[in-house]
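fyi for ur records
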Amino acid sequence: MDLSNGRTEVVSAEEEVKAQENGNALSKFSSLIHILKGHEEFTLSANGIIISSNLEAVNITGYEEYEVIGKSISLFYSEDEKDKAISDLDKAARFKYCVVSGIRRKKRDTPFWAKMKISALYDKQNRVSGYKVIMKDATHRALSNARVQTLRDEYLAIFNNPFVGSFKFRMSDYRIQMCNQKTLEIVGRTNSSDIYFDSLFKAKAQFDHFTASLLKDKRIDGFKFLVNDNRIEENWAVVSAKYFEGKGFAEGVLFDISEQHSQMMELHRVNTQLDNFIYHASHDLRAPITTIMGLINLAKLEPEKTRNYIDMMEARITHLDVLLKDLVSVSYNNNADVGCAEFNFTQEVDSILKEHVNLDKLTVVNVEIDHDHPYYTDQVRLRTILRNLISNSFKYKRPDSGRHMVRIKIKVEPNQASLEFQDNGVGIAWSLKDRVWDMFFRASDQSAGTGLGLYIVRCMVEKLKGEISFESTPSVGTTFLVVLPNQIIN
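which gave:
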């Protein structure tokens, strides 16, 4: 038994020696790996003093081995973080090891970003006998990560620009993968879930053109399209995008150009009207003058017919006077601010009717004015609207009609006034319904006017933020409907 016990003790000692040798071999192998990876390795005493290192093979910190032996591990910490060195060792003692990162100091106080693994070493009584520290220079990785994060932040900042719509969609099915809030505002959507890029286009042909160009050229700039939304007004957007063929997606930006498109269309309309105005105005102004000059020459040659020629000249001068007054009305409406004064429909209509009834006693006039509320508007513009529409009701009689009839109905409510002008005259062909508002357009050969009347009426109604429409049947009659807001309410 004693021998057996002695043998057991000898075997245990041999095993302990082998285990120690194996541990040393493993430690050397581990150190070799650290050397190959360029890691500095330090062994510390229990109070953090460096007792060995591998600085002969690796030199990250710039120190020689003799310069660090006997020094505290806090040598690599800045003056403000000396206490952190102690807390890092305490943390490793509590949890057996810890990994810490931060700015450390090389020789000559050069900063670098270090990653340190601090492992606690224990004696047979399981007490901390020292520490092993593995240090690597992570400056390059830290800078790379910081740069990547900066680029990511910059990308997200650009992508989430509140003034520009940004998007990303798959080319396989056009599903939008990312978009910012501005994109949703432009296309009239509330959230980005289950939105497909092709659904943003009002016209499929426009989207087909967009994708064809994108597939062919891998990018498209400034493509204008009509947005598919539920808003009343037409909304236009312009898109620029790039197709990343290898990744299967496209991304780009959207701009809302609804206002610019509206302004461009309005500018086009104004330019067209201006060209039309210059042509017709010069023609209509010159024609009466040419006629008058011809009549003067005839009067000189035929004195006995002077009276007839004078009457004809008077008629042409009257036409010229009316034309000039209409041109003044156009200019006034374009340039004068909208006024606001109380308007009495009864007095104004009576005054205008006297001008016509005295000349045309065969026309039957029926007037209904319900004016129980005060009404405020631009007096000059509304007076012009009334005069033109009432004049038209008298002017366009049917030659075969036994009795011409004019009906005027006006109802004033707290927030608006509704005006209706009806006659049983020649009427207007429905094919001309859009052209009657054009400058210098005459819907009937019977008209001897300037062709500016309804153009002026429509422009002034729009200036007063009102609405105008008409219904007409040839040889039956015409009814004009006007609704104008009460300016004191609005």
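The chain has four domains: 2-136, 160-256, 259-335, 337-490. thats all i got for now
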